[in-house]
Here is the input.
Amino acid sequence: MIWKEDVECLPICELKQLQGDRLAKLVKYVYSNCKVYKDRFDQLGIIPESIKQIDDIGRLPFTTKLDMRDHYPYGLFSAPRNALNEIHVSSGTTGNPTLVGYTKEDLALWSDVMARTICCAGGHPDDIIQIAYGYGLFTGGLGFHYGALEMGLTIIPTSSGQTRRQIKIMQDFQPRILCCTPSYALHMAEEIAALGLDPRKSSWEIGIFGAEPWSEPMRQEIESKLGIIATDVYGLSEIIGPGVAQECQYKDGLHIYSDVFYPEIIDPDTGKPVEEGQDGELVITTLTKKGIPLIRYRTRDIVSINHEKCRCGRTSPRISKIKGRTDDMIIIRGINVFPSQIEHVLLGIDGVEPHYQIVIDRGASHLDQIDILVEMSPEIFSDEIKQLESLQKKIKQEIMAVLSVSANVKLVEPNTIARSEGKAKRVIDKREI
Ligand code: DLL
Here is the structure.
């Protein structure tokens, strides 16, 4: 089943026309409503009326995460604050989080792309869906919620965590669809087995997993452990949340909703488009958003793109699974963390040296574990054990308070962390993803 066949299967030339019309409108809209864009266009001598077709997009400037941070909280919005019905924040930047907001029209758009997503994964309006993404200020839970409402599914909004309860709910209500991060899906499989049950007999038949990188071997593991079809969902808060791209039953790339989120793949160093099929940074223009529409937003995610029509009938291009990032952001259990944030916390604590290492691994539980090795100053090192323990506890609490990540903190002797002559290797990621 295809949720919006008229747009999802539109012949390419009509799709291009639609994208061009929307881009022309968007450029005029942001120019008249957002001072940041107006000033930038003026500086570059871009006359909004001169942008008429989708191929004109290359003349427009990029928007970056730094722009969002610099104009925090409302500077990059095109709609006034009182037109926003909902706001979310994304973690993962130093200092201010990234604020995103939705007008009523944006919420309708989100519902629509999420209905397309659930449908693309194989969902049906008769299904029961268990939404185990966090609802808080993370976009995952509510994004799926709106899409499932739009399609008319029966929703179980469990949010994330409380694994035993998730399992009981699955057993009692028999949902066919499970939505959560891939690492949490694996963890659930193990908890089910720990209860003496067979995870393959779970009621879940389809998984919609994303928000963090995961590999083909990990997909195979989830599919064999849970007896489920595991599909990949991609999105980011700045663009809308989940609902930017989704795999269909053929699992041969993620369909990106290019009638509303126009994709370009560029060389991150030159900003120029790469050849079709080559890896590059995904850049997205939100063609129809009202609250905080973004022009040529640099996602920092590395993908390739395939414009061929898919066997499922959709004509929307397909992006590959996310192959990496152009920056050093790490994602731990779905939470975005920059090493610089950890550094910021550590360096605010007395007795800690600016030498540290972050080791991420997926233990037997398949959940991300983060160890932070922190070098003590010689003075602190000679202190009593009790004082060292209290320092360790303090660091752990600060990391939790600032980043919402539970880390194992290990204090190490002065001068034990390898010094580097070039860039310091702060992060050792041992996860096989
Ligand atoms: O993670 C939105 C989302 C929620 C997507 C639920 C899918 C499911 P942010 O917290 O802003 O938004 O993080 C966005 O997460 O730029 C990618 O680097 C990474 N990411 C998201 N989905 C995938 C995926 C949500 N399927 C950042 N594979 C993005 C790999 C992903 N990385």
